[in-house]
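Exercise 7b. Backbone tokens:
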């Protein structure tokens, strides 16, 4: 298929700054590939062209398409992520900053492992109040925002913003400083460190700066709306000499503000380059006119955007359908029946379907409905509901109640409690292996050997398991309340606390349904084991369940966007923040524009409140539905 006039203009751009604003499904990757091919065919050395993407998968796809178009494999052409480019720069010039060529790159898991190691070494007694993910997030954000780390109180100030307990700030500060000292000592660099060190190197070392800027003559940046501040600074440094920056993006698809992405980078790029050329790709080749229309109706309500036409030449398709259901059970049943009906009456295969939701707790009823109706599914970009850590905690609580000699369940529950660490658990387990009594009784037997803090936690555990209820949902509610589990989560200083508590409430709600509320612990655990074993089906021909955030960049013939309700989408946390409200609107826009042929949107009239009763809250359709023209 030939390029359209807008795509031709973009691919023929040669020198100077250029911004390509691309609507969803407008063929922006094709433009990047074709422009690269034309630059090379015009005599530009491949080694002088740098193409930056956000995932290794996208980079590999682009590299393969370029090589196929050129009918050759250009190994000296860089197509990759920001992090891989920075690793390349540091391998070549790292000796200027005392970094050897063979430095080790730590992934996010290894980063938190090292932080946990430091916490165990220095603050064993406080480790349950020191969440390694939260510490890592502060360290990473500081460097991605290019904070001056030489300031005396920089970490104290940053941790004061997230730490409710001021007595813990100094400990967080010390862990962060020790972590950075360890990286230097062990010759390691983490992901945000790759960016930060590369920028500092280029800024402060004239020799490397000249070589890098001379060789980086043509710079292409994909998904510019998803760049963070450090990545934008890096782009400016790399292009400082030649100014040949070709930036592709769409502020309307910026949905990662919560992890540092700045759509404002596009605005700054325009402001800082007076001679910039702006090209708009307005034709969508993915979706039907009906899907394009409702999506365009919605996004036009955002004020912070680049105005553009959103159109398609595709043939008319099915109307976008909006349904309001009584509750999530009815919503999930409709989706399952609709999928089974389309599978029976059309040429669709299961992998043509995706169900998109705003928050992870919403997957639980979908998973259970799929299992019940024999629909194979996969969770993309996240864990299955029953694989999430807080749900595993709750399952361990039930397992220990059902079998008070379950050593794995006891260890998991005990580790949640303040004052119970490896030493206390060893005392309890050593005594446990001597006899035939259960863990709660063992705790009482060794009570006088324990510290006061451990004794206080054992008292909580005894209260929790002194439960006369027989129904699983009442038992779990009693245990969760007795050990103050939600408070334990809140004291961990994690940013995803609200989501974890939502998941706990959703789990208790699932036990307090007409179908489950009279089940014992044993019966519930057996039922859930069947759900989780069904998840392990190796069948690749499955429908997809995923969050709206995880769906960005993907497309499916049939899309279900569920739970489009006030306080969910837009999320309640964004209600008082105009910028947050606009990002929520962009998220719904991204969700709808994943659809190629059919789009189903739905909401519910009621949802259970909390997780510990039979009360419901009334739900209202999202205001975004009216903006999109789906309700009057």
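Sequence design result:
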């Amino acid at each position: 298929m030939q390029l359209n006039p807008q795509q031709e203009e973009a691919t023929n751009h040669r020198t100077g700054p250029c911004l390509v604003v691309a609507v969803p499904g407008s063929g922006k990757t094709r433009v990047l590939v074709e422009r690269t091919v034309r630059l090379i065919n015009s005599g530009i050395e491949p080694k002088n062209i740098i193409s930056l993407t956000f995932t290794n998968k996208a980079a590999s796809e682009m590299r393969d398409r370029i090589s196929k178009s050129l009918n050759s494999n250009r190994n000296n052409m860089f197509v990759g992520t920001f992090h891989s480019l920075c690793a390349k720069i540091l391998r070549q010039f790292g000796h200027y900053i005392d970094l050897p060529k063979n430095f080790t790159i730590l992934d996010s898991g290894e980063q938190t492992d090292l932080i946990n190691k430091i916490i165990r070494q220095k603050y064993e007694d406080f480790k349950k109040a020191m969440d390694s993910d939260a510490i890592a997030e502060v360290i990473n954000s500081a460097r991605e925002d290019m904070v001056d780390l030489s300031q005396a109180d920089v970490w104290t100030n940053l941790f004061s913003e997230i730490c409710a307990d001021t007595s813990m700030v100094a400990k967080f500060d010390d862990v962060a400083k020790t972590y950075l000292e360890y990286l230097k000592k062990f010759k390691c660099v983490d992901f945000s460190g790759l960016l930060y060190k590369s920028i500092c190197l280029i800024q402060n070392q004239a020799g490397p700066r000249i070589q890098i800027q001379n060789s980086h003559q043509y710079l292409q940046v994909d998904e510019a709306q998803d760049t963070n501040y450090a990545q934008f600074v890096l782009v400016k440094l790399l292009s400082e000499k030649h100014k040949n920056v070709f930036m592709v993006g769409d502020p309307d698809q910026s949905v990662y503000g919560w992890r540092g992405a700045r759509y404002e980078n596009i605005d700054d790029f325009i402001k800082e380059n007076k001679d910039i050329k702006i090209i708009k790709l307005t034709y969508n080749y993915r979706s039907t006119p009906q899907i394009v229309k409702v999506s365009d109706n919605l996004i036009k309500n955002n004020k912070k955007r680049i105005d553009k036409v959103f159109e398609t030449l595709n043939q008319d398709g099915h109307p976008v359908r909006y349904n309001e259901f009584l509750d999530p059970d009815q919503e999930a049943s409709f989706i399952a029946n609709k999928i089974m009906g389309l599978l029976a009456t059309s040429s669709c295969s299961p992998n043509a379907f995706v169900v998109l939701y705003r928050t992870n707790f919403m997957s639980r009823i979908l998973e259970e409905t799929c299992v019940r109706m024999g629909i194979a599914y996969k969770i993309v970009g996240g864990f299955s509901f029953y694989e999430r850590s807080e749900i595993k905690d709750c399952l361990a609580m039930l397992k220990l109640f059902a079998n008070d000699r379950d050593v794995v369940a006891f260890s998991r529950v005990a580790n949640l409690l303040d004052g119970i660490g490896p030493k206390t658990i060893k005392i309890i387990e050593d005594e446990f292996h001597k006899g035939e009594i259960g863990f709660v009784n063992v705790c009482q037997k060794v009570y006088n050997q324990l510290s006061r803090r451990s004794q206080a936690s054992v008292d909580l555990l005894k209260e929790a398991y002194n439960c006369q209820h027989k129904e699983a949902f009442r038992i779990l509610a009693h245990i969760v309340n007795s050990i103050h589990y939600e408070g334990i989560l809140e004291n961990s200083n994690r940013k995803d606390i609200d989501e974890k508590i939502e998941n706990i409430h959703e789990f208790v709600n699932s036990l307090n349904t007409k179908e489950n509320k009279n089940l014992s612990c044993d019966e519930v655990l057996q039922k859930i084991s069947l759900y989780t074993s069904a998840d392990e089906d190796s069948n690749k021909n499955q429908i997809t369940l995923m969050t709206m955030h995880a769906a960005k960049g993907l497309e499916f013939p049939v899309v279900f966007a569920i739970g489009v309700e006030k306080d969910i989408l837009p999320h309640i946390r964004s209600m008082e923040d105009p910028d947050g409200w606009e990002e929520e609107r962009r998220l719904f826009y991204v969700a709808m524009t994943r659809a190629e042929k059919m789009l189903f949107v739905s909401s519910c009239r009621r949802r259970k409140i909390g997780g510990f009763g039979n009360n419901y809250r009334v739900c209202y359709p999202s205001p975004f539905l009216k903006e999109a023209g789906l309700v009057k």
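Instructor comment: The two ends are 40 Å apart (CA to CA). The CA atoms of residues 202 and 210 lie 9 Å apart.
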